[in-house]
Amino acid sequence: MTFKTASDPTQRLVDVDWNKPELQELLRKTAHLHLDNRYPVNKRPVLLRQGWHTSAPAQAAIWVDLGPDAAQRVLLTTFALEPGEPIMLDRRKPGADEPDWIYAEVSSCRQGQRVGDEGLFVVTLRLIIRPPVLAARP
């Protein structure tokens, strides 16, 4: 047996009769099972403002804290956001009088696909390190 033959998965294919009653019964028993590879994360309520103006109406959202080393930031909303849209998040810390503003742009937005995600949108953010210069409104 050559190396190519040993590493070729098609050499070990099995012919399966999907209509066998035993196999159909097993498939029915396992049809409701789902794999969920999510690890535990901290979720915090935040107020989201579309645009970088404090006068924009605030909408409720959920900040998914994946840790300080996460390459992307995730937000859960009940409404869709457009990629490139600037947003401002008010993430108040307990006991703080002033809001902890987070400035970001939407990288992507899609409907949730996991169990329990019905009606939610998963929004990936690109954080803006330096706060933008906010224009004073007359």
Question: Which helices and strands appear, and what pairs or packs with what?
Answer:
Layout: H1 3-7, H2 21-30, E1 42-50, E2 58-65, E3 73-77, E4 86-90, E5 101-111, E6 121-127
Antiparallel strand pairs: 1-2, 1-4, 2-3, 3-6, 4-5, 5-6
Give an overview in words.
The protein is mainly beta and 138 residues long. It has a domain at 42-127: Elongation Factor Tu (Ef-tu), domain 3. Helices cover 11% and strands 33% of the residues. It has two helices and six strands. It has a six-stranded antiparallel barrel with strand order 1-2-3-6-5-4. A hairpin with a 7-residue loop joins strand 2 and strand 3. The longest helix is centred in the N-terminal third of the chain and has 10 residues, at 21-30. The protein is elongated, with a radius of gyration of 23 Å. The termini are far apart. The model has no long low-confidence stretch (mean pLDDT 80).
